[in-house]
Hints:
Number of domains: 2
CATH topology of the largest domain: Tumour Suppressor Smad4
Distance between the termini: 41 Å
Structural class: alpha/beta
Amino acid sequence: MRNFGIFFNPNYERTKPIFDLLKKLHNNKNLYFFYFPQQKELFPDFIHSIGDNKLDCILSFGGDGTFLRTSQLSLEFDVPLMGINLGKLGFLSESSLSELEKSIDDLKKNKFKVQERMLLKAIVKRDNKAIFTSLALNDAVIYKGKEPRLIDIRFYSNHRLVVETRCDGLIISTPTGSTAYSLSSGGPILSPVMDAFVVTPLNPHVLSVRPMVFASDDRLSFKLKVNGSECILQLDGKNSQNLIDNDEIIVKASNKKVSFIKLTNKTFYQILRKKLHMGKR
């Protein structure tokens, strides 16, 4: 690997040490770094515009939110993605700034694997017409919005009723997203290489409505009764579409996947133990 796309958290201010390190890698290891058009004002002269250059990998500098945004570039340019954590947790990141030079050496020596991660596709239908479609790497969240009242959701799998519940909302997550909002709401952890959905209710009004796991080839749909209020569909932590009474949200597996760089000296379970303190007393 020689050609790396660079994407930054635009709010991160302590960039000089990072640029100094990247310039050192550029000079000493014959590496080339490229920025994307939406961030052209952030970078010094030795980092060039992507133009027609073919990338080998994209490096995402930031936390998990930055990584989720960079995943769209990974799809667009059809190259794998590796996160460099500059945030607090960085669960999706494979490396840190202090480890970056060694990680680059591992990439050049082919000491890595490419792991494909499932994406979900969310479709909003209103009056039987699709008004919104988008992809998410982590999750789709149906949330009650600003109103304090609960919303009524009828939940179907392959057109068959699963449950009807009153709640603050639902989280529909991929295996990658199972360690994010879904986990903090009581959902299970899935291995990231699986293809499956986790549906986790948010504060359901009855104790018997619990998180459930569904096959990735299931068609999940959710019909809303929001009592005249607006609620929100959030994708990967961003407000994406306002929802009203009788809207239907369809969630299914996308035919696209995001490629992650996985360094061979780290396992998913090591990351769980280190970053989420799994098993610690």
